Amino acid sequence: MLEALAAGTPILASDVGSIRATLLDDPRFGDTFRMGNAGDLQAKLLEAADARLKEKHGPHIAAAAAAKFSEAGMLERYETALREIAARGRGGRGGSNKMQPLNGGDDSSA
After folding, report:
1. Is the pTM higher than 0.70?
2. How many domains does the chain have?
């Protein structure tokens, strides 16, 4: 899907898991269809086949996808998520933001 977005092509995906929240939070990126609903898929395919949509949104899709899914952007979101998880683990209290190794600090396996 990321390759399609990078090429400025809107995507059509089944609405499962976190597809909508992760990839399709920008409506220019494409749309989803209800899983198991052939009529919904058909309607969305006919809509997506309209070449005017790609002409209108294509350049914007590529630029927005590059910004959202760049290495720097993804690293920033990972760091934010990890800090939020760490803060919840401390009960929201202050303290060190230093991440602890998953092996409990035992570096003998390294």
Report:
1. no
2. 1
Residue 6 is inside which H or E element, if any?
helix 2-6
Q: Is residue 102 a part of any domain in this protein?
A: no
Domain boundaries, position 8: 2-84
Q: How far is CA 88 from CA 4, 10, 14, 52, 100, in A?
A: 36, 37, 33, 47, 14
Q: What would the pLDDT profile of 61-73 be if each residue is shown by its tens digit? A: 778 887 777 888 8
88: its two tokens = 């919840």
How many helices (H) and strands (E) the chain has is answered by 5, 2
Residue at 39 is within a domain: yes
